[in-house]
Specification:
Two copies of one chain form a homodimer.
Chain A: H1 6-33, H2 36-43, H3 47-53, H4 57-80, H5 86-103, H6 106-115, H7 117-120, H8 125-151, H9 163-183, H10 186-189, H11 195-209, H12 221-233
Helix pairs in contact in A: 1-2, 1-4, 2-3, 4-5, 4-6, 4-8, 5-8, 5-11, 5-12, 8-9, 9-11
The structure holds a DNA duplex.
DNA sequence: TGAATTTTCTGACGTCGCGTCAATAATTAG
DNA sequence: CTAATTATTGACGCGACGTCAGAAAATTCA
């Protein structure tokens, strides 16, 4: 079942090596610093061989994004399993999102690059679907928690307001927040530090706005996060 | 005072022409479709002359962004002057933001491109400051409304929670929302249409979460927006 | 084992876009 | 009207892209 033909095995290994070489290049020197020639030189294969694996550098970038996107899915799934009320599980998701951004800041760079239409149009539909699917998986996990909350009567959504809509808001707030935090200088102009805490405060307020109990005023956030760290992610 | 030397005048005019030519190119063919050669050909000047105005294509993109960013500042300033309670003025801002995205969708493309570090590093600090400053101006306008709300006792923020922090949340939510709406396919996967209404609902809920009165449950949103359209933007 | 065949790898090649700069044309000053 | 200054041009060198004919390696078969 997991036995691949040694041929394919070797192929995959080399693919990993190419990605491993490409990652620091793009992290350090950005989109324009990454070139097929440079990868070929560093990985010590010819350009043609690299092209056998990836048809352009954008394809490499999305492959890097996929590696990391899978990790996020895992983090979200783990967070969703936190033993506690729906609202606390939501806090766990927030923590997972934050942890992900902290641990894999590169991902945001890849995502930004891949958002550009003229970049996106160069990558295979297959890989695009994989990233999209990762995002959908994450959102599905969160939607599940929203449904659980409704079932448990921790939350009542306005008529016609689907769980997906709530998740959209959370997603917009967090991804927008992380994007601003990671890129915009306007933040410091305005005297804000600690964007992560801020985002977490805002998601809490938004959920309060929906009346998702227990409200953020009724539980000890610090203690909850403490528990999440220990029980879900095994951090101290 | 507004008399520029005819030299400079002519210079400016040509700059406008270059930008006017570049805009549709990048809108249609994206970042990679835009090249100095192509601009030169279409504007019927030589490449060298184009380079006299803009030192690279990224510089042209940011110039395009600046044109549009100024419009947003104007929209926000106008919205802030809506005669009504602080909460309604906030709704007006939301409407302005939405109107801006509707009327100038290109701006998001430019912003996305300019967010990429390796692109950003190619543009002059001067122009970067101009865009940053536009963003800061917008946020300052909004912050002013928050302060007014506090002064009028429509809103009480938690201790240590500055108006700027609230604005950050609004900004994250709307810009994140618009970004997802404009790019991600995940939306339709999940069955969401009308992202604009959704964003507006979420901002309302977030403000409700802060207890900014009148709460969204206590006023007629449709009617308010109607008034805003007429009184602030003169739309029917 | 060794020749034949298939597969994989290679780097030179044509192309394109960038940014420069010496030469040329236009403008202004004297 | 000429000299000096300023503006414009496009050819040039460079680097990256993506391709492909041929070299090298691996595999098959007698």
């Amino acid at each position: 079942m997991n036995t691949l033909s040694p041929k394919k095995q070797q192929m995959l290994e080399r693919e990993e090596r190419i990605l491993a070489v490409a990652r620091p290049i793009i992290v350090q020197d950005g989109y324009h610093g990454l070139s097929m020639e440079r990868i070929a030189a560093e990985v010590e294969y010819s350009k043609g061989t690299i092209y056998n694996h990836f048809s352009c550098k954008e394809e490499i970038i999305i492959a890097l994004a996929i590696q990391t996107a899978n990790i996020r899915v895992e983090l979200f799934k783990r967070a969703a399993q936190f033993k506690g009320s729906s609202r606390f599980r939501m806090v766990a998701i927030g923590y997972a999102a934050e942890k992900f951004v902290r641990d894999y800041p590169d991902f945001f760079l890849f995502e930004q690059i891949l958002q550009i239409p003229s970049v996106r149009s160069k990558v295979s539909e297959k890989r695009q679907n994989v990233v999209d699917n990762c995002e959908v998986q994450c959102m599905t996990v969160v939607t599940g928690i929203v449904r659980d909350a409704i079932a448990a009567e921790d939350l009542e959504l306005p008529p016609g307001f689907s769980p997906e809509k709530l998740v959209f808001g959370m997603w917009a707030l967090t991804s927008g927040g992380f994007t601003i935090a990671s890129s915009s200088e306007s933040l410091r102009h305005i005297g804000l530090e600690n964007p992560f805490d801020l985002i977490s405060d805002h998601t809490a307020t938004l959920l309060d706005g929906f009346g998702w109990s227990p409200l953020s005023t009724d539980y000890d956030k610090q203690a909850t996060i403490q528990r999440i760290c220990e029980e879900v992610f095994g951090d101290e």
